[in-house]
C-alpha cells in the first residue's frame, strides 16, 4: 500500500483549481496553472505559509496490556490495540449471573453527556436521576474496590446485596400500587400466569387434534391392510378349487 500525499498537496491542488501562480516571484516558474475559477478560499494564505505535513513513519501504537512474559515474537505491531476498561470484566460477570436484567427497558439518554460526574457511588447503588440497573452495581463495585480496599468478590457481594434490597422494594411498591388500584376499580388485564396457562392450553388442544388425526390414519391403514390380506386369501382358495 503506497503513501497518501494528498494532505501535503492541498495548496498545490487549490492553486491549480483557482489559477493562482505557485511561485509569484515571476519568471518561467511564475506562470498560472489551471483555470481561474474565482477568488481563492479563505484558508489559502494560511496553507501557503504553513503547509500541512504527513508523518512518513508508522507510529507504534500505545500498548494497553503488559508484554508477553514468554518472550514470543510480537505480532501485528502496528495494529491498534484493543481498549479495555476495568468495568468491562465486572459488567460481564454481573450480566452472566443476571441475564434477565438485559430484558428490562434501559434509558441511554443523557442530559449533557457529563452525567457521570454527578454520581456519588460512596452513597450506595441508588443514584438520583439514574435508573436502577446493572450499571449501578458495576460502578458501585468499582468504587468499593478502589476506595475501600475490597477485592473483586467482596465488593461484588456487597453491591449485589444493596441491589437485591432495592429490587425487592420496587416489587413491593409495584404490588401495593396494583392492589390499591384494583380496590378502586382498576383493571390491568390478564396476568402473566394466566397468559401462560392459556398458551399451554392452546398448544395442548393443537397436539390433541394432531394425535387424534394420526391415530385415525393409522387405524385406517391397518384396516385396509387386513382387507387386502383377506381378499388375497379368498382368491388363492378359489384358484385351488378350480385347479382340482
Number of helices: 6
Strand count? 0
What portion of residues belong to β-strands?
A: under 5%
Note the run of SSEs as H and E.
Answer: HHHHHH
Low-confidence stretches: 25-36
Q: Indicate the structural class.
A: mainly alpha
Distance between the ends? 99 Å
Chain oligomer state:
single chain
Percent of residues in helical segments?
40-55%
Shape: extended
Mean pLDDT: 80
State Rg. Answer: 40 Å
Largest sheet: none
InterPro entries: mS23_dom, Ribosomal_mS23_fun
Keywords: Mitochondrion, Ribonucleoprotein, Ribosomal protein
Organism: Echria macrotheca
Family: Belongs to the mitochondrion-specific ribosomal protein mS23 family.
Helix/strand layout:
Elements: H1 10-18, H2 44-49, H3 86-97, H4 134-147, H5 152-183, H6 192-243
Keywords, please?
mainly alpha; Ribosomal_mS23_fun; mitochondrion; single chain; 37S ribosomal protein S25, mitochondrial; ribonucleoprotein; structural constituent of ribosome; 244 residues
Amino acid at each position: 500500500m503506497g503513501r497518501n500525499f494528498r494532505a501535503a498537496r492541498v495548496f498545490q491542488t487549490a492553486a491549480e483549481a483557482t489559477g493562482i501562480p505557485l511561485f509569484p516571484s515571476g519568471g518561467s516558474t511564475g506562470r498560472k496553472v489551471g483555470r481561474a475559477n474565482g477568488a481563492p478560499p479563505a484558508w489559502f494564505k494560511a496553507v501557503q505559509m504553513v503547509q500541512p505535513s504527513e508523518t512518513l513513519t508508522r507510529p507504534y501504537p500505545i500498548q494497553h496490556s503488559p508484554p508477553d512474559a514468554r518472550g514470543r515474537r510480537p505480532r501485528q505491531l502496528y495494529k491498534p490495540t484493543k481498549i479495555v476498561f476495568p468495568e468491562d470484566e465486572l459488567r460481564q460477570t454481573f450480566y452472566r449471573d443476571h441475564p434477565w436484567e438485559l430484558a428490562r427497558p434501559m434509558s441511554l439518554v443523557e442530559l449533557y453527556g457529563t452525567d457521570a460526574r454527578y454520581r456519588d457511588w460512596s452513597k450506595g447503588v441508588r443514584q438520583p436521576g439514574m435508573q436502577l440497573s446493572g450499571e449501578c452495581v458495576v460502578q458501585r463495585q468499582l468504587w468499593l474496590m478502589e476506595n475501600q480496599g475490597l477485592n473483586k468478590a467482596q465488593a461484588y457481594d456487597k453491591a449485589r446485596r444493596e441491589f437485591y434490597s432495592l429490587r425487592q422494594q420496587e416489587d413491593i411498591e409495584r404490588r401495593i400500587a396494583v392492589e390499591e388500584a384494583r380496590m378502586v376499580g382498576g383493571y390491568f388485564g390478564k396476568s402473566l400466569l394466566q397468559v401462560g396457562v392459556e398458551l399451554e392450553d392452546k398448544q395442548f388442544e393443537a397436539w390433541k387434534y394432531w394425535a387424534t388425526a394420526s391415530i385415525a390414519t393409522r387405524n385406517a391403514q391397518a384396516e385396509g391392510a387386513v382387507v387386502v390380506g383377506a381378499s388375497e386369501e379368498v382368491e388363492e382358495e378359489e384358484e385351488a378349487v378350480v385347479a382340482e
